[in-house]
Design a protein that fits this description.
The complex is a heterotrimer. Chain A is mainly alpha-helical. Chain A has 28 helices and 9 strands. In chain A, strand 3, helix 18 and strand 4 form a beta-alpha-beta unit. In chain A, helix 2 packs across helix 4 and helix 6 crosses helix 7. Chain A is elongated and about 100 Å long. By secondary structure, chain B is an alpha/beta fold. In chain B, helix 2 links the parallel strand 5 and strand 6. By secondary structure, chain C is α/β, with parallel strands linked by helices. Chain C has 3 domains: 78 residues, no CATH class; 181 residues, HUPs (Rossmann fold); 126 residues, Rossmann fold, CATH 3.40.50.1220. Helices cover 29% and strands 23% of the residues of chain C. Chain C has 11 helices and 21 strands. The two termini of chain C are 30 Å apart. Classes of the chains: A mainly alpha, B alpha/beta, C alpha/beta. The interface between B and C is large, with 84 and 90 residues. Chain B: InterPro entries: ETF_a/b_N, ETF_b, Rossmann-like_a/b/a_fold. Chain B: This is Electron transfer flavoprotein alpha/beta-subunit N-terminal domain-containing protein.
């Protein structure tokens, strides 16, 4: 903070100095100009050369990674749009920072290009000079805001070198501004005359050199500005190109994990050492700006579990380059009881293991197992870094190569292998709960409109209530549906998040083979995890389905006029967005529409929608069960309490189980299906044909299936 | 936990583990047999011991998957002696053990398929003239040809035994649970086939084998002269259903009720 | 009261004459001195006499009610069973046609229920042919405290009470059994298939004798086609199949393989082996038992669990109770989350699924996940403050009150019981 004040003070005094001089020593003016004109190109091109060397070195670091097919030219061409649209869509959630960045970064890019032209190549065109002045002014204004933000920075921001960045930005913009003044002839006569002019010129050159050093040299040699260089390339060569919007619109969501090729025995099973990441993943880690947005939204971090997504990404950067994490200047990985894991004790190298077999290397295993795969970090990351991919990659190594899935992980995986469900229940008893419901089986009827995917909740007594409710709703809407019954298996979600890609693929392939025997229009499930896996992750293995979450389906049925609800008479209700429905699949509206149809006005929690906080039940986190200061569901229940709601509607068996597990909970937990089933009323006879509430909504019939 | 193992002459201490193809109790899928996997775990937790896995049995895909389950624990290979499915594996195992001459043989208490009589270790010990010890919970140390082991007794009790080597030891569910079987090592591990002529178990062919019937619940036989008492005892329901609720009792009364129940159930010793 | 029985011919005469005016009073006196007439007594020549008028009571509306539930006659039926025990037939087999050898476990120096079942089976095999009965010979190792060997169906006892059989000495025992085989050549060898008891010794014996035993036998039936005229059903493949086969010479049977002997008494005649047994050079050395904390027994195996939840405030008292009761410690999720218990102690859907015979839940309200985890427990006891909670609904016995006080009382009660037992043992 002191440094910043003094830096500002220094800038002001320099300006004052410039103004105070006035018409003095004319004789030296030309000499000084000449000196600057010779010095500046040297400075600029030295910086550029150093930057180029640094860039090559940095690229060689990335190239340590495994190959990943990316269309380089297409990526580079798409980069500006990805930056301007997609990245700023994320950054734009905080308007202040967004504008600051536009001013600073836009100003810098323009100033840098113009400076090379004007000062480097000596094209002393007054128009270019004027533009350069404008650009550097914009950058300076931006850097003032950057400085203001650094006055009292929030905990999530990294300190260290990042604290000098506003000064460097100012030095660059101011220096460029001042050296450009003569070019446009705006310089008051005699400013650079007199005895102090030499000194002034040297100081100016020094300031410009500082700016150039930070902005060009630091950009490729690992300073804070590295984010611009690596970030731009990361946007261009991103591993999930489909994440970004295109001119045709669409895009914007790519959340399914990428499959391992298990047939290739030479390919590593997951990531053991930094060099096992693909090169563009390594590039992505390098793009991190250490803004700590991920840290601020991470449920594991908030719960005091030993995970800080930002630190994890920085650990990967350290590993990629080799060295220790001593230089890290942000909040550490939390640790139970004490404030955090000490920084500086972990070190790694590109070809050394990330997780030690014994002792410490780069990252401790419990850090990786703390993640709930809720994707809040990915959703928030302005640099589009894929934290969850990286974590699952490293988990794959721990599970597939080392057999070190912690706590109940091994047991759950064994159960999945032996019984096709994580609880180790008799697979034949999957439909026992519905013995009285007389559910139609796919094996009997072969062809149906809606295949109801029960999920593993079929073995859980709590979720059986939800399933019963959902079936009541489906029957009330006269939906033609059937279940797989004992033929259904776990979707493989938990196995995959725990890193057991082999078991996931085995389950997935068998499920796909089962589904291939039958004809149906769509799959409806009340489990967002199954929903995500069936819809987004089976495709790579050859299973393409139209999958709907039950809330979406109920909303559609209601819009089609096939359901009638009695008005809500209960108390205040809030809605908890399941991660795998919301952030993974972008379905925020349908559950709210159902609640609205039920006559419920949702009291939104502070963190809802895309910023919803995880219940703690995803990614196998309840299975690996890494201790923290508090439990994630307790924090979420607290959020619910703060919203003043007496009831929380959920749309996921995991969320229901986690939130119901909170002791002395202030709110009742009900699934949307249960709320809908309770509110069902007989449709008036005349309405039976289905007066659609929304004409566009389609009702499907069996005839369409045959076609 | 690694154990100190010092062999007599500095050469590596060699342990053979006899592994069989297990069967999941619910789904009947082939898997690593629970007790055998615990035996492998015990062998792997011995420091500096060279561990060799031996399997005798038929050679199909399901059993290969199951054997790979053992490899996934971090063993480099399994010696597989192919035998007909109705063969007696004792001659084949005797032969290979006599040849390999390990100091210690570990195996599960009984197989999860076939007769599952648990006789194999005893038969092997008899034919090789080795010591046999059952129900190992832990190997404490191995020094100068004598192993100090803990034998598991019911209810978590342990008995310390000294066993002269070479010995065959069986492991049951009181031994530490087997480590996770990882996919990578399981895929890489090698199955080495050795040949040995199958000796068909003739006796078994005369047996009549069917899925296990539920054993009838034993009735409390009331030796009462009165017909009414006998009828009542025969007709009485095992459980009267709803539980007993004691509220507004002193702690002593409550404790007495619990005590009576504990004593009836025979869990107080 | 004097021991001498005095007869009063006049009263007996009145008791025989139902029309006598003092009949009812005399009957009441004879029935045991209590008020009211007796309904049933033994007449002078042994026949049971009944007084139908004495049965029942006058109901609230003045109508006579007869309660046939037996509640009114509790005292008398007890008396009849005592008589029944005395009436057990004494059976002595002097010239056995063959021998059935049984090696009971003698856990704690007494015949276990498993042993008694096995002796019942041995009796069936021995008594199959009433013309040529066999004798059951039991081979006992080490000291024992069992007084009722004859009652359990043992005709002959070979008691090998030597220091070499003390503790765990399977090699010495095996040598002794080989000696018995040599000297007595029993037709059948029966051993309990119990972990670390007969299970081990039986297998050793079978291998030594070169006999292929039937293991895990749970049913034995007569079968004319069999060489041994018996066939047995045994569990195989980890209990998943039943193997029916001829009954071999060596049988390792499970508990409840037969009904224990209850109607006859036997001689339990001690016999000695004619030849002394040779000394064996043991390669197994028993170093004695090692104390293990019952709380560390894995939850899934434990047969008795004391589980603590949110309602437990006095944790020291809880741990002490678990120790005194000899119960494995369990916990609800909350107790684990709050750091009072280790994670591996958590019972429930997200923890361990337990299958204890007795599950005592202290201060656990019974979240559905927890109740799922204890589904397969036989008896559930709960100590709870809230009598409407789900755990109380599930429990076979629920005690409402302060957990700490009740546990303390239970600990005191159990300690008292242990002391009594110790005294009894010392007396015996």
């Amino acid at each position: 903070m002191d440094g910043k004040c003094s830096a500002q003070g220094w800038v002001y005094s320099a300006l004052a100095e410039v103004c105070r001089r006035g018409p003095a020593a004319k004789a030296t003016r030309d000499e000084v100009s000449t000196m600057l004109n010779t010095l500046l190109p040297i400075l600029i091109f030295t910086a550029l050369a150093l930057a180029a060397i640094g860039a090559v070195r940095r690229m060689r670091l990335w190239r340590q990674g495994r190959p990943s097919p990316v269309n380089l030219l297409k990526g580079l061409a798409a980069m500006p749009r990805r930056y301007l649209v997609d990245l700023h869509h994320v950054v734009g959630r905080d308007k202040m920072i967004s504008n600051t960045h536009v001013a600073t970064a836009g100003g810098f890019v323009a100033a840098a290009v113009l400076m090379i032209l004007v000062h480097g190549l000596g094209i002393a065109n007054p128009l270019l000079g004027g533009l350069l002045l404008l650009a550097s002014t914009s950058m300076f204004v931006g850097s003032l805001f950057v400085a203001r933000r650094r006055l009292n920075p929030p905990a999530r921001l990294s300190k260290g070198p990042w604290m000098r960045l506003p000064k460097s930005l100012m030095a660059f913009s101011l220096g460029v501004f001042l050296v450009t003044l003569p070019t446009v002839g705006l310089l008051p006569d005699g400013l650079l005359e007199g005895s102090g002019s030499w000194l002034l010129a040297l100081v100016l050159a020094g300031v410009v050199a500082w700016g150039l050093g930070e902005m060009f040299f630091g950009m490729t040699w690992g300073g804070p500005m590295k984010h611009a260089f690596a970030g731009a390339l990361h946007l261009a060569f991103h591993r999930r190109a489909e994440r970004f919007s295109t001119k045709k619109g669409g895009g914007g969501r790519s959340t399914g994990l990428k499959a391992l090729n298990l047939n290739d025995e030479a390919a590593p099973l997951g990531v053991e050492k930094p060099a096992d990441f693909t090169w563009n993943q390594l590039l992505g880690f390098d793009a991190c700006v250490q803004c700590g947005r991920c840290e601020a939204v991470c449920p594991a971090f908030a719960a005091g579990q030993p995970l800080n997504p930002k630190k994890l990404i920085q650990d990967m950067v350290v590993g990629m380059a080799g060295g220790s994490d001593a230089g890290y200047a942000g909040s550490p990985h939390p640790s139970q009881g004490i404030g955090g894991k000490p920084v500086g004790e972990h070190a790694g190298s590109p070809h050394g293991p990330i997780v030690a077999l014994e002792g410490k290397t780069l990252v401790d295993a419990d850090t990786l197992w703390s993640c709930t795969t809720c994707r809040a970090c990915v959703e928030e990351c302005p640099m589009m870094i894929e934290h969850v991919d990286a974590i699952v990659d490293m988990r794959r190594h721990l599970t597939l190569e080392r057999g070190k899935t912690p706590n109940k992980g091994a047991e759950v995986l064994d159960n999945l292998i032996a019984t096709d469900n994580p609880g180790g229940f008799d697979p034949g008893s999957r439909l026992n709960w519905a013995a009285d419901l007389n559910l139609p089986l796919m094996a009997d009827i072969k062809q149906v409109d809606v295949l109801l995917w029960l999920g593993d909740g079929a073995f859980d007594m709590r979720n059986q209530r939800t399933l019963r409710a959902l079936i009541k709703v489906l029957r009330a809407a006269e939906v033609d549906f059937a279940v797989l019954g004992a033929e259904e298996r776990d979707s493989g979600d938990v196995a995959r998040r725990l890193g057991d890609e082999a078991t996931f693929q085995s389950l997935a392939k068998r499920n796909i083979a089962t589904l291939a025997q039958y004809r149906f229009l769509q799959i409806v499930t009340c489990d967002p995890h199954s929903f995500h896996v069936l819809g987004n992750e089976y495709g790579e293995l050859g299973g393409h389905y139209e999958v709907r979450h039950h809330s979406t389906f109920i909303a559609e049925l209601y819009d089609a006029g096939r359901l009638t609800f009695a008005p809500w008479k209960g108390g205040r209700v809030t809605y908890h967005d399941p991660c795998y429905l919301g952030r993974y699949n972008g379905e925020y509206e349908a559950p709210r529409n159902v609640l609205k149809a039920l006559g419920i006005e949702v009291k939104e929690m502070e963190r809802s929608g895309s910023r919803s906080r995880c219940c703690g039940g995803g990614g196998g986190a309840p299975i690996t069960d890494i201790p923290g200061k508090q439990r994630i569901p307790d924090m979420r229940m607290n959020d619910i309490k703060e919203s003043g709601a007496e009831l929380v509607a959920v749309g996921c068996p995991q969320c229901a189980a986690m939130l119901e597990g909170v002791v002395d909970a202030s709110a009742e937990v009900r699934d949307i299906a249960e709320l809908a089933a309770d509110a069902l009323v007989e449709r008036p006879a005349g309405d039976a044909s289905g007066g659609s509430r929304r004409p566009a909504a389609t009702t499907m019939t069996a005839e369409e299936v045959i076609v | 936990m690694p154990r100190n193992v010092k062999s007599l002459n500095g050469a590596g201490f060699s342990v053979s583990v006899l592994v069989s193809v297990g069967r999941h109790p619910l789904t009947a899928r082939a898997r690593r047999a629970d007790h055998d996997a615990r035996a492998v775990e015990m062998a792997l937790s011995l420091n500096d011991a060279s561990v060799q896995l031996i399997h005798a049995g038929d050679n199909d895909t399901a059993s290969e998957e199951a054997l790979r389950g053992y490899l996934g624990m971090g063993v480099s290979g399994v010696k597989r002696i192919e035998q007909a499915s109705n063969a007696d594996v004792v001659p084949a195992l005797t032969n290979i053990l006599r040849f390999a001459a390990p100091q210690l043989v570990l195996t599960g208490t009984r197989a999860e398929t076939g007769e599952g009589s648990g006789l194999v270790p005893y038969l092997l010990a008899e034919s090789l003239g080795w010591t046999v010890v059952s129900g190992l919970a832990e190997i404490e140390s191995i020094e100068q040809g004598v192993a100090t082991v803990l034998q598991a007794l019911p209810r978590g009790k342990r008995r310390r035994l000294q066993v002269r080597l070479p010995a065959i030891a069986t492991v049951d569910s009181s031994a530490p649970a087997a480590r996770q079987s990882a996919f990578g090592p399981a895929r890489r591990g090698e199955l080495t086939d050795c040949a040995y002529a199958s000796v068909i178990d003739e006796l078994q062919t005369q047996w009549h084998i069917q899925p296990a019937r539920k054993r009838p619940k034993r009735l409390k036989i009331v030796k009462s002269a009165s017909a009414r008492d006998r009828f009542k005892a025969a007709a009485a329901k095992a459980d009267s259903g709803g539980g007993q609720l004691l509220s507004d009792v002193t702690p002593e009364q409550g404790a007495e009720a619990i005590f009576t129940l504990l004593k009836e159930e025979g869990v107080l010793r | 009261m004097s021991e001498i029985i005095r007869r009063d011919p006049r009263r007996e005469w009145i008791a025989r004459n139902r029309l006598h005016p003092e009949y009812a009073n005399v009957l009441a006196d004879m029935g045991g001195g209590g008020g009211g007439a007796v309904s049933e007594w033994q007449g002078p020549n042994g026949a049971v006499r009944k007084n139908p008028r004495a049965i029942g009571f006058i109901g609230p509306n003045g109508v006579k009610r007869i309660d046939r539930s037996g509640l009114q006659q509790g005292g008398q039926s007890a008396a009849t069973t005592t008589a029944a025990r005395d009436s057990r037939r004494m059976v002595t087999i002097d010239q056995p046609a063959f021998l059935v050898a049984v090696v009971p476990d003698m856990t704690g120096g007494r015949l276990s229920t498993h042993d008694k079942d096995l002796l019942g089976l041995a009796r069936r095999l021995a008594d199959a042919d009433a013309e040529r009965p066999g004798a059951v010979v039991a081979i006992l190792f080490g000291e024992h405290k069992e007084a009722a060997l004859g009652e359990a169906g043992i005709d002959q006892v070979v008691h090998l009470d030597d220091n070499s059989y003390a503790g765990f000495a399977p090699e010495a025992c095996l040598a002794a059994l080989s000696g018995v085989e040599r000297e007595m050549a029993p037709r059948f060898w029966l051993l309990p298939d119990s972990p670390l008891g007969g299970s081990e010794l039986g297998r050793r014996l079978a291998v030594r004798l070169g006999e292929r035993p039937a293991t895990q036998v749970w049913q034995v039936e007569a079968d004319a086609h069999s060489e041994t005229s018996w066939r047995c059903t045994a569990r195989g493949a980890a209990g998943s199949v039943d193997i029916t086969r001829h009954l071999p010479r060596v049988v390792l049977a499970l508990a409840e393989c037969a009904e224990p002997v209850s109607e006859t008494r036997h001689a339990a005649q001690p016999v000695a082996l004619p030849q002394p047994l040779p000394d064996v050079l043991g390669r197994l050395k028993d170093m004695g038992e090692v104390a293990v904390d019952p709380a560390s027994v894995s939850l899934a195996e434990a047969e008795f669990i004391l589980s603590a939840g949110n309602g437990v405030k006095d944790w020291e008292g809880y741990h002490r109770a678990a120790q005194v009761l000899g119960a494995a410690k369990g916990a609800s999720r909350v107790a684990v989350d709050d750091g009072f218990m280790a994670r591996d102690r958590q019972v429930g859907a997200s923890g361990t699924w337990v299958s204890a015979r007795v599950y005592v839940a202290v201060g656990i309200s019974g979240a559905i996940q927890h109740l799922q985890g204890i589904q397969s427990c036989d008896k559930v006891v709960t100590i709870n403050l809230d009598e409407r909670c789900d755990m109380v609904k599930r429990a076979d016995l629920a005690v409402i009150g302060d957990a700490g006080e009740i546990l303390a009382a239970l600990v005191a009660r159990v300690e008292r019981y242990r002391e009594q037992q110790q005294e009894n043992r010392d007396a015996a």
